Amino acid sequence: MLDVYDLGRLVSVAAIWGASYLFIRVGAPEFGVAAMAGVRAVTATLLMLPLLLWRGQWRALWANWKPIAFVGLTNAALPFLLFNFAALSLPAGLSSILSSTTPLFAALIGAIWLGETLSVQRMAGLCIGFGGVVLLVSGKLHLGVAGTASTLAAALACLCATLLYGVSGNFSKRFLSQVPPLAVATGSQLFAAVLLVLPAMLLWPAHAPSARAWGAVLALSALCTTFAYVLFFGLIAKLGASRAMSALFLIPAFGVLWGTLFLHEPFNWQMAGSCAVILLGCALTTGMLERRPGRAATRVHFICELMRLGASMARRV
Question: CB–CB of 48/186 below 8 Å?
């Protein structure tokens, strides 16, 4: 069973990562897609490198720099650009819900690339999860948020980013499973910074970003990238990867919550229902709802709490 301290850390990770879409939504319109991605990667690298050196893991990074560089491209540089582009049109809450499809893509790519078995339950989860995406996006297109074309392009950008997360996760599992997680995280940010610094300089905004936008991108780098990664790695070391991943199921709830509270974004029953369907699909696909002693009740509790939160928020809006 989780103690109160570990449960608090799990919820904190979800709350922090859920806030990342809020910060992206605030900063991207002023910085632009490339400049914000570059500042985020460079700042995160500068913050994480001292910790890496202090723990003596530089050699692990250097010895595996080629696969880590690939992770930097697929798990940082390109997703940063894609989510920034999406934030120009999509509300933060909707981006966070679409980002929850990562486990679906990870399972699908694992089956195609690594030959992992897809049980009937996992296949049903994939169908349910992607069905939730169709329900969510079709509802937004019907409402005409930011125009049909821009909404569709932004939604596809989010899904491309989560597809890349799925590729990166399976690649890391195959080639970097023995490398310290901090070395992979720091190295990926370092290589992302190398890839993004030139486009950021060339596409730097003509008008200086406001203090509010700078605050958003610095919070995104320091809080959502550096601090959350360190906190998450600590959870993985203590609880194991599967239990630590439970935090990911709360990210959409916090993304919607922060967007509603601070940006006054609309939230309705269709979004709540779509989110629940997507997360149900993810839970089935990843085995979160399997009956295993000592963990099934905790995981079902997370999903039930998420649905309850979504319902209460929908009543308030």
Answer: yes
The residue count of the chain comes to 317
From the list 311, 312, 313, the residue with the least C-alpha distance to 266 is 313
pLDDT of residue 242: 56
Contacts of 228 (CB under 8 A, 6+ apart): 13, 16, 17
Q: Which of 192, 180, 177, 60 is nearest to 114 (CA)?
A: 177
Q: Which of 169, 138, 124 is nearest to 271 (CA)?
A: 138
- Please state, as a whole number, how many other Cβ atoms lie within 10 Å of the Cβ of residue 177: 8
Measure the CA–CA gap between 154 and 146, rounded to whole angstroms.
Answer: 10
pLDDT tens digits, 185-209: 999 999 999 999 999 999 999 999 9
* Kind and range of the H or E run holding 75: none
The pTM assigned to this predicted structure is 0.83
